[in-house]
């Protein structure tokens, strides 16, 4: 999977803040693809060996709103970017021409946007910015739009699925107590609906591992899901076993899928998935972990219903 590293770095911990942005179009055909930052980056890159000053200062100053959204926690500043680019020039060169075929993806992505409009008529469609950062994030959502870390791309395989995932984060308004379950539903829900509208799965390796180890992982997750600690499920592992990063995407997907399959009105189900108010009740209604919860509660001499209080 070409985008494994990209997906691993998608931190969307502020999606509730993003929800309700109304400065973006509600017409899927108005999707904007902004690539000027890529052109500006390569102009700065080609000046590195000639200029006495940091050429990436101009890259930052001339940047689109996507650069602004990618600066905090990622680019940091022009000096930080310059240091990484000097060290990893060859790695950056691999993506020099990667956006040459982006126009061929625009129709595909607009079709994906249109599919979301069918499932969720209230959807908003933010611009998509292709920027260059420091090899520490393949993409994110920000108030400025969907931002893709172009240096992470070796080709455009899977980029439409990645954008579909980030597009769903723009629509989500998931509330409730800060716990592992909530964030797994956020990421897994974005994967589920993103796949529904694009037909593309962007976390194939972790999903395959999850299916192969379903029983063991479900038993563990039941003991962890109320805990705010993400380790071994989202954004990194302790290396305690051979698990890949981000199994929380997989189990969140499974819970969401189970909930969706139980609902008669599928469009209403999508709205509910995007607007979860009580993650524990959503889990209960999904029924996905019922057998594991009942076993866990029995070992603690408690009832099934007590688990959800």
Description of the structure:
With 309 residues, this protein is mainly alpha-helical. The chain is built from 16 helices and 4 strands. The protein has helices spanning 4-8, 15-18, 36-45, 56-61, 65-75, 78-87, 89-93, 102-119, 159-171, 180-198, 204-212, 214-224, 247-262, 266-274, 279-286, 290-299; strands at residues 33-34, 128-131, 139-142, 145-149. The two termini are 40 Å apart. The model is unreliable at 1-22 (pLDDT under 50).
Can you give keywords for this protein?
4-stranded mixed beta sheet, 16 helices, disordered N terminus, mainly alpha, 309 residues, 53% helix
Topology of helices and strands:
Elements: H1 4-8, H2 15-18, E1 33-34, H3 36-45, H4 56-61, H5 65-75, H6 78-87, H7 89-93, H8 102-119, E2 128-131, E3 139-142, E4 145-149, H9 159-171, H10 180-198, H11 204-212, H12 214-224, H13 247-262, H14 266-274, H15 279-286, H16 290-299
Parallel strand pairs: 1-2, 2-4
Antiparallel strand pairs: 3-4
Helix pairs in contact: 8-9, 9-10, 10-13, 11-13, 13-14, 13-15
Short description:
The protein is mostly helical.
Quaternary structure type: single chain
Summarize the biggest pleated sheet: 4 strands, mixed
Estimated helix fraction: 40-55%
Total count of strands: 4
The succession of helices and strands, N to C, reads: HHEHHHHHHEEEHHHHHHHH
- Gross morphology is globular
Question: Strand order, biggest sheet?
Answer: 1-2-4-3
């Amino acid at each position: 999977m070409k985008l494994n590293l990209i997906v691993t770095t998608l931190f969307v911990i502020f999606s509730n803040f993003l929800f309700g942005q109304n400065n973006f179009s509600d017409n899927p055909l108005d999707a904007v693809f902004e690539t000027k930052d890529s052109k500006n980056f390569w102009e700065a890159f080609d000046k590195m060996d000639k200029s006495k000053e940091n050429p990436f200062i101009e890259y930052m100053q001339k940047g689109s709103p996507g650069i602004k959204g990618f600066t905090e926690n990622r680019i940091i500043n022009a000096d930080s970017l310059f240091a990484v680019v000097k060290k990893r020039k060859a790695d950056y060169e691999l993506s020099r021409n990667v956006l040459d075929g982006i126009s061929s993806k625009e129709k595909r992505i607009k079709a994906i946007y249109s599919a979301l409009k069918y499932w969720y008529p209230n959807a908003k469609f933010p611009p998509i910015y292709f920027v260059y950062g420091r090899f520490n994030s393949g993409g994110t959502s920000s108030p400025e739009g969907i931002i893709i870390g172009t240096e992470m791309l070796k080709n455009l395989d899977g980029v439409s699925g990645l954008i579909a995932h980030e597009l769903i984060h723009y629509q989500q308004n998931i509330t409730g107590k800060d716990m592992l379950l909530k964030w797994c539903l956020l990421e897994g829900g974005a994967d589920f609906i993103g796949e529904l509208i694009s037909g593309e799965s962007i976390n194939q390796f972790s999903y395959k591992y999850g299916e192969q180890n379903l029983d063991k992982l479900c038993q563990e997750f039941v003991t962890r899901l109320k805990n705010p600690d993400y380790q071994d499920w989202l954004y990194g592992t302790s290396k305690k076993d051979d698990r890949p990063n981000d199994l929380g995407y997989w189990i969140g997907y499974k819970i969401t899928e189970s909930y969706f399959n139980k609902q008669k009105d599928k469009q209403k189900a999508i709205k509910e998935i995007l607007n979860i108010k009580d993650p524990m009740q959503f889990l209960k209604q999904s029924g996905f972990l019922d057998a594991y919860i009942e076993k866990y509660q029995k070992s603690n001499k408690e009832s099934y219903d007590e688990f959800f209080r």
